[in-house]
Structures are given as C-alpha cells and as structure tokens.
Write a structure and sequence with these properties.
The structure holds 2 protein chains of 2 kinds.
Chain A: H1 3-19, H2 45-63, H3 85-98
Chain B: E1 5-9, H1 14-25, E2 29-34, E3 45-49, H2 55-69, E4 74-77, H3 92-120, E5 123-128, H4 132-135, H5 141-162, E6 166-172, H6 179-182, H7 186-193, H8 204-215, E7 226-228
Helix pairs in contact in B: 2-3, 3-5
The chains are: A mainly alpha, B alpha/beta.
C-alpha cells in the first residue's frame, strides 16, 4: 500500500471515531474528498483542533514519527491543508518527506 | 484516585526545583526539564534534558509524557532567563536568548500541553511574568518585554483554550533571592523593593500559594488572570 493511502486510512479511522460524537458526520465514504473543515466541512475550529491533534498523535503512535501539524493557513477557508481528508493526507506526506 | 501529572520547566535549581519538590510532596507525579542534568533526585520526579525553545525536543518530551502517563493535568512554565543591562549595551544575541526561552519556550509548552489536556477536557497552565512589567524597571527592557509577551499570551490562550476546559493564568513574583537577581547591585534591589506595598523579598512559598490557587479544581472560572506579588 502506498504511503498516501496509508495516511488516508489513518485519517478516515479517526474521522469514524469522531463521528460517534458528531451530530453532522464527516462523509468518510467519500474517501479523499471527504470535507473536514471549511465551506462543506462539519468540523468547527474547536473540533478541527482536536481532530488535527488526534491525527498527529496517531502518526506518532503508528508510524513512529513526531510531526507538528501546524500551518499558517490552517484556518483559511480556501487554502487550509485541513479542508478534506485528501488535502490533509497530502500535507502530512509532505511534512514526512521534509522531516 | 490517580496522581495528578504535573510538568514544570526549569527545575534544575531555584523556584523550579522548589516547585518540583513541593508538588511531589502534594502527591503529584512531576515531570521536569532543564537545559542540563540535575544534581538531585526524588521519588515521583522524572527529569528530562530539554531546551524549551527547541520545537523537536519539546515535541519528543511531550510524546514521552503521553506514552508514559497518557494525560497531563498541570503545566507550570517556570523556565526563564533574565538580562539586566542598559538597552544600549545589550547584545542582540542576549535579546534572542531571552525571547527564545521566555516567549518561544512558554508558547511551545502551552501549545503541546493543551494538545494533551484537551482530550480530558481539563487542564491548568500557569505562566511566569514579573513585577518588572508594571514597575517599568530600567535596565530590564528586554526581560520585561519578553514577560509582557508572556502576559499577553496568557490572556489570549485563556480564551483559545477555554472551550477545552483548560485555564491559563500567570503569576508575577516580586524579587526572590535566586540566581536570577544575584548579579543585581544591592541598591537597585532595595529601590525596587521600596516600590512594593510590602517591601520585602518574595519567597518560594509565596509563589506556590498563588499557583495552588490556580490549580485548584474550584478555580475552573479563573482564567486569563495575573497576580503580582508584593502589591505592585
């Protein structure tokens, strides 16, 4: 399995966990296109932070990598790397390559 | 009941060491860090070597805390350095050092601590500022400016973290007889003390008393606040 898909799966799993608490669910069945934050996303900024932290910790536990998922454009509606599951996976993969 | 997990920065000596011992005595599991190894040890205390302004080091310290304890209840951002010098004689390197330790260090520890605390929807963060801010102490421009930044950080993070059940407050000690002020001439210290309502040196216990108040479970409605000691 390629690395990007592995990250997408990891994010999807966390999205499923979050869905148990959410009134409006993350559309995990849409795969990479599932919106997280922004116009179509269901996470508000408070929940987005918890979500990103959960992803950061899962990467630490499962891939043994310590990354800081922090970005200037985090809360930008258009350019946030946290818009969709796919955008977040690409962003994580980029950080892993840089690290 | 599980012991509370308390992280204290700058524990090698002075106030940090006192607080580590004090909270171990109160039944906390204390994790501490400093730039170097310590020459003391204590059951219930775990030491890490860390530069508080180095992001990767701070992140791995928190990764260790998360793996070992799973949670963090209290963070006391005590690590700090002072610089006492006339502005015109202050090297830029000193400015960077003071800002890195006091501002960047406090920021990084607040950020990483909140990530751990938000899971439990509970946390208490206490930052350190100084009476040099309201007293506008000459010769401490960069030190006071760095702590003014910490004060501002405290007030804003209090709002950003409130939704997670985390409070963020600060304490502004009056001069305490530690290494931080040992190099300051006596007449300067005397003149500083004379500007306090209660003109005496602060003690470690005075500081612990304020921190105790912030950490209490009943203090859940106290956030974004600062208490100066000595009556400034």
């Amino acid at each position: 399995m390629n690395q990007n898909q592995e990250i997408v799966d990891l994010i999807a799993r966390i999205a499923n966990e979050f869905n148990e608490q959410l009134e409006f669910k993350i559309a995990v069945e849409q795969g990479r296109d599932a919106p997280l934050y922004g116009r179509d996303g269901v996470l508000d900024s408070l929940r987005l932070v918890s979500f990103v932290v959960a992803v950061e910790q899962a990467i630490e536990d499962e891939l043994g990598l310590t990354l800081a998922l922090a970005d200037e454009k985090a809360l930008s509606q258009k350019h946030s790397p946290f818009r969709t599951v796919g955008a977040l996976a690409d962003y994580v993969e980029n950080l892993m390559k840089k690290g | 009941m599980a012991k509370p997990i308390t992280l204290i920065t700058g524990t090698r000596k002075g106030i940090g060491k006192f607080l580590a011992e004090y909270y171990v005595k109160q039944g906390h599991l204390v994790v501490g860090c400093d730039l170097s190894e310590i020459d003391w040890s204590l059951e219930g205390y775990k030491h890490y070597i860390a530069d508080v302004s180095h992001e990767a080091t701070v992140k791995s310290l928190f990764a260790e805390v998360r793996k070992k304890y799973g949670v963090l209840d209290y963070l006391i951002n005590n690590a700090g350095i002072a610089a006492m010098n006339h502005c015109l004689l202050t090297p830029l390197e000193t400015v960077h050092n003071v800002l890195n330790t006091n501002v960047v260090g406090t920021f990084l520890f607040c950020r990483e601590a909140a990530k751990l605390m938000q899971k439990k929807r509970f946390g208490r963060i206490v930052n350190f500022v100084t009476v040099a801010i309201p007293l506008r102490l000459e010769g401490e421009a960069i030190y006071a400016a760095s702590k003014a930044a910490v004060l501002s950080l405290t007030q804003i993070l209090a709002r950003e973290f409130a939704g997670y059940g985390i409070t963020v407050n600060s304490v502004g000690p009056a001069p305490v007889e530690t290494d931080l002020i040992r190099s300051v001439p006596k007449e300067r210290i005397d003149s500083l003390l004379s500007r306090l309502a209660i003109p005496r040196f602060g003690t470690f216990e005075d500081i612990a008393n304020v921190i105790d108040f912030y950490l209490r479970e009943d203090s859940s409605f106290i956030t974004g606040q600062n208490i100066y000691l000595g009556g400034v």
